[in-house]
Amino acid sequence: MKKLIRVSIFLVLLVAGLWFLQRLLVPKYIYENEEGVLSAEYYDNAGDNDVLFIGDCEVYSNFSPIKLWEDYGITSVIRGTPQQLIWQSYYMLEDTLRYETPKVVVYNVFSMRYDKPQNEAYNRLTLDGMRWSSVKSDAIKASMTEEESYLSYVFPILRFHSRWDELTGEDFEYLFSSEKLSHNGYVMRVDTKPVETLPEPVPLADYTYSDIDWEYLDKIRDCCKEHGITLILIKSASCYPYWFDEWDQQIKEYAEKNDLTYVNFLEHADETGIDYTTDTYDAGLHLNLSGAEKSSAWFGKILQQQPGITDRRGDAELDAKWQEKIEFYESMKDSQEKQLEETGAVTSFR
């Protein structure tokens, strides 16, 4: 019995030690690659969201759930991550359905230009923050490059065990906690870098979307249909990388065939009021705060026409919840504007 107790204590200490080391060595995404916290942050915002945005940086940079609430009383959340591939968007939708069922899902189609896994760094930014479930397991299997190991996602210490010489104060400060970055998935930037010149688009040999892209778009469509969710396809406002007419036409035909709404923001610049000399922080790749609010204010008119979407302001519990979000939003806005005034740049999202 004593031997059994000693072995049990040893195993408990071993597991606890490995867990501690894993927590220490896994990147914290606080001061570098901050978008790596977005997947994990969703769970604090889960529940009672009528609109879900899924896709890449063109959703988490270009739409403000706070603006949608303030103008229309629409509750929304963004599950966007850097270079989120279409199969990852599908599994984000499946994962969301474990916690809530939105009335509308908005999918940004730009990532359909990719037909295979890209690299581990982007995979990690999307997948590591997801809670463990069969959905995450399937997402990992669909996303891994040939060089990656499934076990390294189950036990991240296998991937990051050699990170000792890269540890900083951030790794110790945020060993057991994180710092909130987003506003229901929206990543704020208040600075401006206007579009001055754009590179000429390089013609492609083939503009046809691959079978796997259509397969997962069908999966997203069918999943939404099964759960009574309205699916809206969008191409978010972005000057670069170039959005080819040939890609756009395929999406238009798909939307028409499947009775879906498709909104190409590039065709509605006059209505949205987006000005690429003032409303982008990186010369046209992503929108800044003013651009995201313009985009959201215009798109909110479309969202409020969808089945089940109502103005939910006036609900005391929701009003209190979203007031806290507004205060955090305004606080970060003030902080970034102060950074701009003092240094001429936004040095931290916070």
Provide the fold topology.
Blueprint: H1 2-25, H2 38-45, E1 51-55, H3 57-60, H4 65-72, E2 76-80, H5 86-96, E3 104-108, H6 120-127, H7 134-143, H8 151-154, H9 157-160, H10 169-173, H11 211-226, E4 230-235, H12 245-257, E5 261-264, H13 269-272, H14 289-303, H15 316-343
Parallel strand pairs: 1-2, 1-3, 3-4, 4-5
Helix pairs in contact: 4-14, 5-7, 5-11
The string of secondary-structure elements, in order, is: HHEHHEHEHHHHHHEHEHHH
Question: Strand-residue fraction?
Answer: 5-15%
Largest sheet: number of strands, sense, barrel closure: 5 strands, parallel
Shape, principal axes of CA atoms: globular
Rg, rounded, reads: 21 Å
Query: What distance separates the N and C termini?
Result: 54 Å
By DSSP (H or I, 4+ residues per run), the number of helices equals: 15
Oligomeric nature of the chains:
single chain
- Give the spatial strand order of the biggest sheet: 2-1-3-4-5
Unreliable runs: none
Q: What's the total number of strands?
A: 5
**Proportion of helical residues:** 40-55%
Structural class designation:
alpha/beta
Give average pLDDT, whole number: 91
Describe this structure in words.
- The structure is a single chain.
- The protein has 15 helices and five strands.
- It has 350 residues and is of the alpha/beta class.
- A five-stranded parallel sheet has the order 2-1-3-4-5, with helices on both faces.
- Strand 4, helix 12 and strand 5 form a beta-alpha-beta unit.
- The radius of gyration is 21 Å and the shape is globular.
- 36% of the residues are buried.
- The mean pLDDT is 91.
